[in-house]
Amino acid sequence: MGKTKKTKTAAAWSLVMMGAGFAATLPFQQFGWARLLAGSFEAGLVGGLADWFAVTALFRHPLGIPIPHTALLPKNRGKLTDALVNTVENNLLHKESIASKIADIRLAELVLKSVEKGIRTPEAVTFIDVLAKRLVRSLPLAELAPVIAAGIKRQATEFDMGPLLEALARQAGARKYDQLALDYALEQTESWLLRADTGVTLGTLGMQAVSGLQVSGLMQFALNAFLGYLNEERMGEMIRHFLLDRVAELQNEGHPRRQAVLDGINTQLIRLATKDTVKEGLNHWKNTFIDSWEGDAAVSGKLEELRRHLLDYMEDASYVTVYIVPLLDQMLSDLWRNTELLDKINSWIVTGVTGVVEANHSQIGNLVRENVNRMDDASLIALMEDKLGQDLQWIRINGALTGFLIGIVLTGVRMLLDYSK
């Protein structure tokens, strides 16, 4: 604005100088040099005034006089606005040029670089923290619980207990669970056999079993003799010592009878696990339990408990820098290495942006029109003069100087013609 005022002042002074020069040389017309200068100053004054009129007529009526074909800008404001909008839409910012420029920009890479630069800033950490907590708090657990419970029930119902039972039977031998079970049973048996009342119990049962035998003849005589020798105490001690010896044999890991018992156990377990009635019974028990399970309430309670624990852990924002930021860094690093995916993302962004530009291209012209229409004539003229005033004022200066030079030539020619006569 300052340069425009200076140039306008210089243009005004050019007219003053031309007018002053013309007036100063008029009294000396009898001299040739005075006539030459007077003609030059006259032509410069005319040229300067003509250009002043032309420049002024663009924006307003010269001297406020409504001369025809002046104040061109206010009179043709609508045409100028339409021309400006058309130029911007169809020449400067037409859709094809915008789409071409957007296609040349690797928008995906620019976005990734911006994310990488800003991801560790305090503002980004705070934003991620707020977003994560809001996400956890807004999870619709009441709506999720029935879905999760139904999924658990469906998966549990479809799960067949047969293969699991067979795997458990085989794992019993592989992990030596059969030995642990046998040793536990033998320990309990040995403990029971060593109790004081066990002998009496075994003796009573033994005597009753022997007395109940139905034999005749010589065998009956031998049995009676045997019963006369034994009593419940002796019978109990005999049975107990016999059983303790068998327990000791089974507790000995190198004894063949122990291995035979273990083989028998494993065989029976596998046979039991592969039995259809057992598998059907287990599946029926499982499905009955699942049908009676109140899953919605149980899952909802667990989800609410999980949310409380998670929010307690998220109380401070340290989890963002410890877990989330490194995870995002790894994701960005993987994305940088995946050039094919990066190209697809860039193509998707370009397609989306181009589509938005094409769909709203007319808004560019509307924006230009709205901004122009928002200004009154005085503001628009001031803007034009501010942007173009310096060059327009130079037209006035150039007009005065050009007229002065042309005046020298024309006056010189006229003087030569006068002298030739």
TrEMBL record:
Record field: transmembrane: 394-417
Q: Name one GO cellular component term.
A: plasma membrane
Superkingdom of this entry's organism? Bacteria
Protein's name according to its UniProt entry:
DUF445 domain-containing protein
Give any Pfam family that matches.
DUF445
Q: Which UniProt key words apply to this protein?
A: Membrane, Transmembrane, Transmembrane helix
**Species of provenance:** Paenibacillus kribbensis
